[in-house]
Amino acid sequence: MSLTLDSRQRAMLKEMGVKVWSRVVPVQAPGERAARTVRTTPTADTSAMVVQPRVAGAETMDWAALQQAVADCRACALCNGRKHTVFGMGGLEPPNAGRPPVANWLIVGEAPGDQEDLSGLPFVGPAGQLLDSMLKAMGLDRKRGAAVGDGQAAQGSYIANVLKCRPPSNRNPEGEEVAQCAPYLRRQIELLQPRIILAMGRFAAQALLHDSVPDVHSLPLGKLRGQVHSYRGIPVVVTYHPAYLLRALGDKAKAWADLCLAMQRFSDP
């Protein structure tokens, strides 16, 4: 099958990364055999579409090795569209010599969005601004890791997501994607050893509570709020995702009640 392309079409295909190979036989002189022009169809470079098995051994990695494993991960198709992986940020002290940062609070979101994909940092868009306000109201600051004052000891917070790569068009995470990223979040929690986890949004709640709450995947978020759950012995409080709260301003009071529940549980002996 031949395909005739003009110069503008060829330029467009080049910008898209599609290679066009062509071999043109010169036109013969009058009286000679008619020339035959042969052009091949555009051939896409499929090397970027390769999905590779996840590197084994996440359960024994130190913090630096885990971060590198996430950066190199190509275990699902999300690797093809990302600009950066989003590992997380926060803590009282930066990680050092493979050790994790110090954080008593772990905030778990769902997946990176556009701005997170560009920056490689979690919650940096409008939802991140609301999250910062929520943390400030709790006496926390993810940029410094903690807020110290009014006689309170530094607490430290770390922010991570269930997925480490942005889903296209910011769609909901898919089951296979969550499954591929699960060992990374599990190891982050094992290394951080937070005193409490704040699960923001339905997918964060499902990822953390699927072993402890029956039928968690079929329960609405409202059924998971208002109580303290457990992830491998660590208290978990479920609340709304900040992106949802930007659309449903009336539920901000409910989210504040969730934060108060989490602060009360954190202060319990």
Question: What would you say this structure looks like, in words?
Answer:
The protein has two domains: 38 residues, no CATH class; 190 residues, Uracil-DNA glycosylase-like domain (Uracil-DNA Glycosylase, subunit E), CATH 3.40.470. The chain is 33% helix and 13% strand. The longest helix is centred in the last third of the chain and has 18 residues. The radius of gyration is 25 Å and the shape is globular. About 17% of the residues have low confidence.
Task: Please name the defining characteristics of this protein.
33% helix; Uracil-DNA Glycosylase, subunit E; 269 residues; 6-stranded mixed β-sheet; 9 helices; two-stranded antiparallel sheet
N-C termini distance: 75 Å
Strand residue percentage: 5-15%
The top level CATH class name of the largest domain: Alpha Beta
Q: How many domains comprise the coordinates? A: 2
**Helix content, binned percent:** 25-40%
Number of strands: 10
